[in-house]
Amino acid sequence: MIDRWIAFWDRREPATCLVLVRILVGLVVCADLLTAWSLGLVPELWAPPPTGMGFGAIEANPPAVVRWFGATARTAELTWLVATLSAVMLATGTLTRIAAIVCALASAQLAGLSPNADRGIDSLLRIVCVILALSAAGTRFSVDALLARGAGRRPPALVPAWPRYLLFAQTVWVYFSAFHHRSGSGWWPTGSFSALAGILSDPHYTRLAPGLVAPFYPLTQLGTAGTMLFEGSAPLLILWTYFERTRSEPGRLRALANRFKLRWLWLGAGVLLHLGIALTMRLGIFPFGMLALYPCFLYPDEVARGARAGKAWAVRAVNRWRTRAHREASTGPGR
Amino acid sequence: MGEPLRWGWPTLRALLISASLVLGGIDGLPVTRAEVSAKLPPPLRWARESLREIRAAILAPLSFVSEGLRVQQRWELFTSSREERFRLWIEARATDDEPWRLLYRAHDPEHALFAPALQYRRVRASWNPSRRGARAGYPWFVTWVARRIFEGDPRLQTVRVQAEQIRLDPRGPGFVGTGTFAHTEHRARAEVLK
Fold first, then answer.
1. ipTM summary value
2. What are the pLDDT digits (tens) for B142-194?
3. How far away is chain B from the Cα of A162, in angstroms, using its nearest Cα?
């Protein structure tokens, strides 16, 4: 048993999924920080009062950047700049491991400067950055890989898979933890599954016009129940994934799970949930930050198959478009 | 007797990963909030306190990681589903005799001054009250938004920021204002633009 456990964490696979998570997480963090800048909130969001909202800088135990550089707007600006640059470096895979660690630390300093401005998704992406720093996520599609190739070093075909497994476990835990912390009755049958309708009617969060929820109320109840089922069943994703990867082995539950494609149903529900959140609620990067982690649920061969299918579809679409354009040109009014 | 464990990097790594999973799980254990705990019968309250203390003792040696990175494993996303919520109002006026002029009201396209900045998730987190009341940074948010308003219009002398208590009504108009306000803060030009 222990040997199998050790062997599990010693598995290797192509870096594809980790690379995708690295690029997407880097882009999401970068987009969020640039949004703050484009709204004129840098440095005000993190600058110490009374200039800004960064009250963490004047508390008894200020973050390290304040101890080193003082409680000033310049310190906030510098921390934002380091966080943004490191996110760009993470996305592009430039000094990947260092960039990931610096991104996590700079984000933590921003959290210390303005504690209210730091949300759960920021905390989660910091954990992800640390795991990425320990991984080989920079060995493909990166500046690091280009430089290594220039120096005559080939990227490794296989890299340790454990960082992806850990990201998998972390993401599953986020959903399950959210599920068992839901104390409001609106999330449960006792409260008629009214929670989602409530959030969609809350003027601080909704993108929908007032009153738009009413005709779809039963649908929102279904959505609430579905969200709870999705989050509560998150740990089962581990089982569904295992069953799918061992489909040739016997077992009734395995056969059923594979027959009904429970793994893909769960993943599809997750994508729909986050896209739905992005379309109907103002939650910033939360849905995108979560979706950025979804490649960790896939195996590299599945991503490769998906990429091949996508490429074939794109080629067919371009060919169809070319044929149609050619036909229209040859039968056009000029002829 | 099975084969003895071979020590090496794979074994050590598996051990470290296992430890991080266990510690993450302990950190993520759901423990009821203090305000909920106060309503519990004494044995349950004692159990809760004991659990908190044991967890704190186990995690203490690694607190530098959680504090340094500001991370934890309890993910509380939209935990509450109460119907009583708030709606932010930002108003200003030039003199004390004038009526308040509404500049921003949450989800009101006709009063949407600085709406993109105010609705940005990190800023909203400073003004959106939780069930425990106003956020710690709320007074500083008020000062910040008042400064923006004063800088944009030299005639305005006072800014008022408050949260209207509303009642959610998803089966009807969405929400209904109660006309009662909370977390009311005023800022005068002289006080903000010293």
1. 0.91
2. 999 999 999 999 999 999 999 999 999 988 899 999 999 999 999 999 999 97
3. 9
Partner B contacted by A184 (CB < 8 A): yes
pLDDT digits (tens, 9 = 90+) for B81-112: 777 899 999 999 999 999 999 999 999 999 99
Q: Give the domain ranges of chain B.
A: 9-69, 84-192
Closest CB to B28: pick one of A7, A50, A177.
A177
**What pLDDT, in 10s, does the model give residues A105-127?**
999 999 999 999 999 999 999 99
B94 CA: distance to closest CA in chain A (Å): 22
Q: Print the SS3 string covering chain A.
A: CHHHHHHHHCCEECCHHHHHHHHHHHHHHHHHHHHHHHCCCCCCCCCCCCCCCCHHHHCCCCCHHHHHHCCCHHHHHHHHHHHHHHHHHHHHCCCHHHHHHHHHHHHHHHHHHCHHHCCHHHHHHHHHHHHHHCCCCCCCCCHHHHHHHHCCCCCCCCEECHHHHHHHHHHHHHHHHHHHCCCCHHHCHHHCCCHHHHHHHCCCCECCCCCCCHHHHHHHHHHHHHHHHHHHCCCHHHHHHHHHHCCCCCCHHHHHHHHCCHHHHHHHHHHHHHHHHHHHECCCCHHHHHHCCHHHHCCHHHHHHHHHHHHHHHHHHHHHHHHHHHHHHHCCCCC
Model confidence at A335: pLDDT above 70: no
Which of the residues A124, A177, A281 would you substitute to probe the B interface, choosing the one with the greatest number of B C-beta atoms within 10 Å? A177
Are B71 and A213 in contact (CB < 8 Å)?
A: no
CB contact under 8 A, B70 and A111: yes
